[in-house]
Write a structure and sequence with these properties.
The chain is 62% helix and 1% strand. It has 15 helices and two strands.
């Protein structure tokens, strides 16, 4: 066997660690979408500049390299583009369904509990004051409810995906450079998808967030084409770890505001989520790099297909949709109640239990109807764990497909 880790062969198959991290992100998104609970204090956004949304979008980009990029770059761009656009359409329909269900939930709750103020939450008030405008804004994605606004961004990025892959035919680096240029331009001139009937733009600006998606796409394409996504470097690892620690200290001691004294441009010196400014972007990349190269002996380096979090992440869209409605129901239940650790715990545990049960059912149903896929996955497991998705030699492990 060659001693050069860069040419160490990588076994084929699904890397369940990506599903695992996607499952972790889904859990944290659910917890964060019931604001004010005690358990919200232990999610990732309390320990750095980024949160679960950034991780999820990066993993989605990585996934797209295998779901669409391989077909596009292997000579069937039309089919791959249609698949991506079809997926964007599915996300759009799920978003519209979630929006209508959210309106129904809060409207029913306002009548049932005599709490009309519930209709002032989560950007619902305009539905009462300007209903006709909102009826236009909802299907055109201009009017988005709070906590039901990430799928439009994801859908818009999938519409951009064929263009990213077209540029990627001239090289992965060219694609990444073009994506970075759009991110910089967006940060400088502050353009966004328009809100209607309100002023301003989308909370998740797709022109900014596409860069994080493209970074995941780049890593996925690199993994497919050369066997590893990003080479391991002790210097880069130390820098990434140092930045993660710096962010932890900065957030823990609530040092926000100090950055204003530096006089840096908006894109470099703020923590804006809409435009995914540099401190947030660098933080999620640093976190991914640190966890990507966890030692092979660590539990997160050998995730099996049956891992509950991997099962959760394998069915991300139905789990996200279910978690969204459960979290909104949790907001209604908590509204006006005295803060209680017991109530918070019941809401979080019961909501997660429902999602895990649904994921297990979906896994069982899919395996029941696709035995060939089940057999292939289990053979991949039996043949050995997937090598490090972001390493050259597999000495360490990386999160991969979203």
């Amino acid at each position: 066997m060659s001693s050069n880790p860069a040419i160490t062969p990588k076994p084929a198959g699904r890397d369940h660690r990506v599903d695992f991290w996607r499952g972790v992100a889904l859990m944290m998104i659910f917890v964060n979408h019931i604001p004010g609970t005690i358990w919200e204090n232990v999610t990732s956004r309390n320990f750095g500049f980024s949160d679960a949304a950034e991780v999820f979008v990066f993993l989605a980009g990585f996934a797209s390299a295998f779901a669409y990029g391989k077909g596009y770059l292997s000579g069937d761009p039309v089919k791959a583009s249609i698949k991506a656009l079809r997926r964007a359409g599915v996300l759009y329909l799920v978003h519209i369904l979630l929006t209508v269900m959210a309106i129904a939930l809060f409207a029913w709750s306002a009548f049932a509990f005599g709490r009309g103020e519930l209709l002032q939450m989560n950007n619902l008030a305009m539905f009462l004051t300007r209903p006709l405008d909102v009826m236009i804004g909802i299907p055109t994605l201009g009017h988005q409810l709070g906590y039901v606004n990430i799928l439009p961004m994801y859908s818009a990025i999938l519409v951009m995906l064929p263009v990213l892959l077209l540029v990627a035919r001239y090289g992965r680096h060219t694609m990444l450079l073009a994506s970075a240029a759009l991110w910089v331009a967006c940060g400088i001139w502050r353009f966004d998808m328009p809100n209607f009937p309100q002023e301003g733009g989308w909370f998740f600006n797709p022109f900014a967030w596409q860069f994080l998606f493209a970074l995941g796409l780049y890593c996925g394409l690199s993994r497919w084409q050369r066997g590893y996504a990003v080479a391991y470097s002790p210097l880069v690892y130390c820098a990434a770890l140092a930045y993660v620690v710096f962010a932890l200290v900065f957030v823990s001691f609530d040092l926000f505001g100090m950055e204003q004294s530096l006089g840096l441009p908006f894109l470099l010196g703020t923590f804006d989520k809409t435009y995914l400014t540099a401190p947030r972007l660098l933080h999620v990349l640093a976190v991914i790099y640190v966890f990507a190269y966890a030692p092979k002996t660590s539990p997160i380096s050998a995730i099996r297909r049956e891992n509950p979090l991997a099962v959760l992440g394998r069915h991300s869209l139905p789990i996200f949709a279910t978690g969204t409605m459960l979290s909104l129901a949790g907001q209604v239940i908590r509204y006006g109640t005295i803060p209680s650790v017991a109530l918070d715990t019941v809401l979080i545990v019961s909501g997660l239990a429902i999602q895990f049960a649904l994921a297990r059912y979906l896994d069982w149903w899919r395996d029941l109807n696709t035995p060939a896929r089940q057999t292939a996955d289990r053979r991949a497991d039996a043949g050995g764990r997937i090598g490090a998705a972001m390493s050259e030699g597999g000495a360490r492990a990386a999160p991969a497909k979203a």
